[in-house]
Amino acid sequence: MASFTIIENFEPIKDSKMLDKAKSFNRELFKKTVNPCRIIKGLKIDESTKRYVPNELIEIEKMKDIKLQQDENIIIDFGNHFVGKLKIKIAHSGSHPDAPGFIKLKMAEIIDELAADSSNYEGWISKGWIQEEWIHIDEFPMEIKLDRRYALRYLQLDVLATSAKYKIYVEEVSLEAESWIDFKDNPQLKKVQDKELIELDKVGLRTLRNSMQNVYEDGPKRDRRLWLGDLRLQALTNYYSFNDLELVKKCLYLFSASKFPNKSLGACLFVSPEVQVDDTNLIDYSLIFISTVYDYYEHTKDIELVKEFWEVIMDQVNTTWEFLGEQKMTNLNNDTFWSFIDWNPELDKNAAIQGVYITTYKHAIYLANVLGKNTDAKNLEEKINLLSEVAKNNYWDEKQGLFVSGDQKQISYHSNIWMVLSGLFDQEKNKKILKKIIEVKPAIKLKTPYAYHYFLEALFLNDMQEEAVKIMKYYWGEMIKLGADTFWELFDPEDPFYSPYGSSIVNSYCHAWSCAPTYFIRKYMDK
Ligand code: RAM
Question: Which segment of the chain is annotated as a signal peptide (predicted)?
């Protein structure tokens, strides 16, 4: 099911002061030249995982010996996931070329993307995200410097045309990797000895670095832009690893620089050629802005920053409050894209959203008290009391000992996780709920590392570290077993090719909302 919004004649409010502040953080990205490490000849299916794996590996020194004729290809492996610009020198062997060469380049984060045929793509998000280029070569050798930045580990070159008189080969190839973070900056774990956890942390860290570009991108292959829900989790992980405060501030200012006409913050933002909020508003993402400022304050105790954003925070409180109407709860289905929570079309989101309201409004109260905004704090407290009352009366099912959502009284992980996070009940009861949900294994599953992040948070906050580590190893660990160099946007261990977009070829395989292991390991276990 397609999930997008189009608003006709959309006219965002611009805030030039916020924009100038955001711009003051602009800086050059760090660069590093990466050379390939091996050649892959052909792919085959691994029967146990149903995923593609290399058929044969060839040393990189032999790259120039591989002369390709029409309909042949070469796969170049850079050994790990990088984000940057490619340089390729293509030469010929044989007679003087009597016709242009015609090649296709395919850039892939994981091997399976190479095997997918983009001409069969029928998903509902744009085909433009598939990383491919078609190039004519009129004169050999030709040095190709791709302008477009790509996210890749693998580069496949298909020869679409030569002539009977000559063959094509790759003489040189390299990648200029880019990141907001210096490539030398590699924060190490101090205490953790468990090898699986060390590996999870490493992959999480790489995921974060590769998506830290001119903004916190959700994924450097797709959507290559700033999303609010993603930003919060990236910033949190960053505090415990690279600890770069500038990019977080830059992104907070950017979101505040272009808003919806009612002052609500958009779910995501374009920064180029000009900063403009997208015409998508997700109620949970607007609310999560509050928590992103709260987290920043908790980490830095920078009261000045809270002051600067207080008005924006209260705008989010007011617009989201209006959204609730008389009942002080939502009652919406998934026919429109009004909230996110997770990429699970079966999910009834209403209970979970109520949990997001209470959680984030509590963060707002905390900040109101920090600033001494007593009237705002009192006002927020009244709202929270009402929301909590409504939550208990409408979503709590005493008999089952779980929260349920919607007319069908749906049981999901999501409703229970968010209600636990909202602190409606005490820790003892929260533990019971979390244990029960693990035992019940609801049919409505978590489909993204984003949703899993909040599951881990609920477990860690309620003193259930053992269960959290088990889940971390099961979920993120399984991605590593399947060959992940960076963590993926979407993953269901029981349905590993899951995609809400109509095809997993457009899934992002370096998606920074999935760095949870790095955050939780460093925050709770590496002390
Ligand atoms: C997708 C992206 C992004 C997320 C939104 C809701 O487009 O994966 O990360 O925040 O969905």
Answer: none
- Flag whether pLDDT at 396 surpasses 90: yes
> Is residue 5 situated within a structural domain?
no
Instruction: Encode 465-491: b = buried (16+ Cβ within 10 Å), e = exposed.
Output: eebbbebbbebbbebbebbbbbbbbbb
Residues 229 and 129 in one domain: no
CA–centroid distance, residue 221 to ligand 1 (Å): 12
Could you report the per-residue pLDDT of 17-52, keeping only the tens digit for each?
999 999 999 999 999 999 999 999 999 999 999 999
Q: Provide the token pair at 25.
A: 């953080």
Look at the chain and report how many structural domains it folds into: 2
- Asked whether residue 281 falls in the same domain as residue 317, the answer is yes
Task: Say yes or no: 63 and 206 in one domain.
Answer: no
First and final C-alpha spacing in the chain: 44
Which ligand 1 atom is at minimum distance from the Cα of 508? 8
**Which of 131, 155, 179 is the last residue in one of the domains?**
179
Residue 392: give the domain boundaries: 13-24+195-525
Coil vs helix vs strand at 358: helix
Across the chain, which distance is largest between two alpha carbons, in Å?
A: 83
The 3-state DSSP class for residue 380 equals helix
The pLDDT tens digits of the residues spanning 133-163 come to 999 999 999 999 999 999 999 999 999 999 9
**Distance, CA 59 to ligand 1 centroid (Å)?**
38
